[in-house]
Design goal:
Layout (H helix, E strand, L loop, with lengths): L2 H8 L5 E5 L2 E5 L5 H10 L7 E9 L36 E9 L4 E8 L6 E3 L8 H12 L2 E3 L28 E6 L4 E6 L19 H6 L1
Parallel strand pairs: 2-5, 6-7
Antiparallel strand pairs: 1-2, 3-4, 4-5, 8-9
């Protein structure tokens, strides 16, 4: 019996189980997350004893691009020149948490995904099941603003004290909102508003070199 078949037999019916590119994925409702993770770890047919990774995902503007074309034109690039509003067709909530599990006994891997509430992204903590999820969840809270309910010590772990916003969200500017510099008069570091205007950068374009077309035809 395959891993997907075992999961369908063991996990709640509300879970969506799919296989793609040789990997098995489980999408579970948030209220079933603890049941799913407990089953994945403790059931004899699964035995996922290690949480390899936990990360957040932001699906804001999923499938949309700032670029209209992938080739050059006589009038230059057309990226980010249209003011026409675009709407993502992503049907699920914006924020998700992804868990990667490993069974060292059965040599199997599994990806579990749960979508958080669109208003306040909350999911239950799994620290009681995988204790080392503690800092993983703090990182996801720090970078994505995901609240892990009943976490024993949910604080920022990477950003500075007093940092505002969540830098891995798609609507957070790459340059951020604040910049730091050393003030010689005050003899200390000071924070100021960022004065960099956000823009879409122009990528390097690799063009066909016509100088070698003749040589290729003669070969």
């Amino acid at each position: 019996m395959s891993l997907a078949d075992d999961l369908k037999k063991i996990l709640p019916e509300s879970c969506q189980i799919e296989s793609s590119f040789g990997e098995v994925n489980v999408i579970t409702p948030a209220d079933q997350l603890l049941v799913v993770m407990e089953s994945c770890k403790e059931h004899s047919d699964l035995q996922f004893d290690i949480l390899i990774d936990l990360c957040g995902v932001d699906y804001l503007n999923y499938g949309l691009s700032e670029w209209k074309t992938t080739s050059t034109t006589s009038s230059g690039y057309s990226r980010a020149t249209s003011n026409e509003p675009q709407t993502s067709k992503w049907p699920l909530p914006r924020i998700a948490v992804v868990y990667h599990l490993l069974s060292t006994t059965l040599n199997q891997r599994l990806r579990v995904k749960v979508f958080a509430s669109p208003k306040i992204p909350e999911v239950p903590t799994i620290c009681d099941i995988y204790s080392h999820a503690n800092w993983y969840e703090r990182e996801a809270f720090d970078l994505f603003g995901i609240v892990f309910v009943n976490h024993p010590d949910l604080r920022r772990i990477l950003t500075d004290y007093g940092f505002k916003g969540f830098p891995f969200r798609k609507d957070f500017p790459v340059s951020g909102f604040k910049e730091i510099r050393y003030d010689h008069d005050q003899e200390r570091c000071v924070y100021e508003d960022v004065n960099i205007e956000p823009r879409v950068t122009v990528p390097k374009v690799i063009r066909d070199d016509n100088r070698y077309v003749g040589d290729q035809e003669n070969e």
